[in-house]
Design a protein that fits this description.
15 strands, two-stranded antiparallel ribbon, 476 residues, 52% helix, seven-stranded mixed β-sheet, 24 helices, Beta Polymerase, domain 2, binds magnesium ion, alpha+beta, 11% strand, binds adenosine-5'-triphosphate
Length: 476
């Protein structure tokens, strides 16, 4: 791996020739640095963004590059950071001047000064993110690797260029980045680094919740999120970020009866669901589906361990957690809440003989979330007993078939009452009143119970009968 010292093949894209030219015109030294170089060497697919560092003004270089491009893209300048960005061929290209950084205790935003390429590599978070690829004519395509990042790439190691205690304390976001890269790339975090994260964990408090959520989302969206959550847990970060989750850890025993460890179970569920969906919010629902179990746990002499009402408590906790973490409080939150609230419903159905009316109620309550709810419930099967595993999956398969059959016949999803309130008022010559509500909900119940089909004529007959029971007369 990486025997060949010249990497100009990485620079095939025309944009690099242009940056190189612009750089020469301005008499600057420039390099591709960071994620692009790393991901190219790891063959991680198409790049989305490219970081260019220049010994000089990144803003000047960006303007020159734009001038050399036929479509003269707009240069977005971030004056405060001394950086600039432009888009070319669906790539976001960031330009920054090489710099040194010095940090203060209470902020991750450093005081910066102009510096050399070496200074700039020193301020990078990991050795594998500090690799610079030359765009200069005299050594075009050469990699500058002061910290043996190539070696760490080969050995799949996350390691900081400088003392990890300083690196993590200066900018504690790097602790989450280390864990996120370890999860995304399947790399190990060097032991010293892992210990330093543990020592510096409390520094996480200076990081904004948006940044934390950003990294959590990336961990959740990786192939095996449990890798990241296990590292977060081991370093003590998870307890500081999501104490509601770590509260699920542990097994208690009373009178020889144990419950399962709901924390480790949850991580299994998240890994399971990640095989079947890339949807971030469905993965969040899997992560949070049992959070109500910590506050609702009880031991009952007759029935053993119970988590009575944990779905309801959990759904309320979802709202609080989203609010605290500055996650969106929109329909995404409601979606997660609803899945948590309903997370046990299909299990209850599958346990018994699957009746049409139970399935109709499930579809009515879940609406468009029914598929996702089933995906969540299947991921929730973590039993190590192969017989039970098979049985549970078979049961859910039956529920899925029943859902399909009932839905095709009864159209319960996005239920609209076949007889409207206006029609009820007209037929019985009523003003808005409580009778209308009673009749409407009686019709809905009759349909869900299977007493009448979800059709206009049947519902109208039923309405007339119900009206009579309430002492109402149809108007002539
Ligand atoms: P990805 O884009 O996949 O998240 P990346 O490595 O490109 O990975 P970016 O956040 O785009 O990550 O940052 C680009 C580069 O900037 C990194 O490779 C790294 O060299 C540097 N960098 C980013 N964030 C930090 C940080 N908090 N501390 C030090 N260096 C950082
Ligand atoms: Mg990047």
């Amino acid at each position: 791996m990486y025997k060949n010292k010249n990497y100009s093949k990485a620079l095939n894209h025309n944009i690099f020739k242009i940056i190189s030219q612009a750089s020469e015109d301005l008499n600057l030294e420039s390099y591709v640095i960071g994620g692009f170089v790393r991901d190219h060497l790891l063959q991680r697919g198409e790049p989305k963004d490219i970081d260019i560092v220049t010994v000089g003004s990144g803003i000047e270089l960006a303007k020159k590059v734009s001038a050399l491009l036929p479509h003269k893209p707009k240069v977005q300048v971030f004056k405060n950071y001394g950086t600039a960005m432009l888009r070319a061929d669906n790539l976001e290209i960031e330009f920054v001047g090489a710099r040194t950084e010095s940090y203060s205790q209470d902020s991750r935003n450093p005081v910066v000064e102009d510096g050399t390429l070496g200074d700039d590599q020193n301020r990078r978070d990991f050795t594998i993110n500090a690799l610079a690829l030359s765009l200069n004519k005299d050594n075009y395509g050469e990699i500058l690797d002061p910290f043996n990042g190539l070696e760490d790439l080969k050995n799949q190691l996350i390691k900081t260029p400088l003392d990890p205690d300083i690196t993590y304390s200066d900018d504690p976001l790097r602790m989450l980045r280390a864990i996120r890269f370890a999860t995304q790339l399947g790399f190990k975090i060097e032991t010293e680094s892992l210990q330093a994260i543990n020592r510096n964990k409390y520094r996480i408090k200076i990081i904004s919740r948006e940044r934390i959520v950003d990294e959590l989302n990336k961990i959740l969206l990786s192939e095996k999120p449990s890798v990241g959550f296990t590292l977060l847990h081991r370093t003590g970060l998870l307890h500081l970020i999501l104490p509601q989750l770590t509260a699920l850890e542990g097994i208690e025993e009373v009178d020889g009866q144990k419950h399962k460890d709901n924390f480790w179970h949850t991580l299994e569920v998240v890994d399971n669901i990640s095989k079947n969906t890339d949807d971030l919010w469905l993965r969040w629902a899997a992560l949070l589906h049992d959070i109500g179990k910590a506050p609702t746990k009880r031991f009952d002499d007759k029935i053993g361990w119970t988590f009575h009402g944990h779905e309801f408590t959990g759904a309320k906790m979802v709202y609080k957690l989203f609010k605290e973490m500055h996650l969106p409080l929109n329909e995404k939150m409601k979606y997660v809440q609803k899945l948590v609230l309903m997370s046990s419903r299909p299990i209850v159905i599958a346990d018994e003989t699957v009746t049409d009316s139970a399935v109709r109620r499930l579809i009515f309550d879940a609406g468009d979330y029914i598929e996702d709810l089933m995906t969540l419930c299947e991921a929730d099967i973590t039993t190590k007993n192969p017989k039970r595993f098979k049985k549970y999956h078979n049961n859910f398969q039956k529920v899925r078939e029943k859902i399909k059959e009932v839905e095709e016949r009864d159209h319960i999803r996005n239920f609209q009452p076949p007889v409207t309130g206006e029609e009820i008022m007209e037929i019985f010559n009523l003003k808005p009143s409580k009778e209308i509500g009673i009749i409407k909900s009686a019709i809905k119940e009759a349909i869900l119970e299977g007493l009448i089909p979800n059709e206009y004529e049947a519902a109208k007959d039923f309405m007339l009968k119900k009206g009579k029971e309430l002492g109402l007369q149809p108007a002539q």
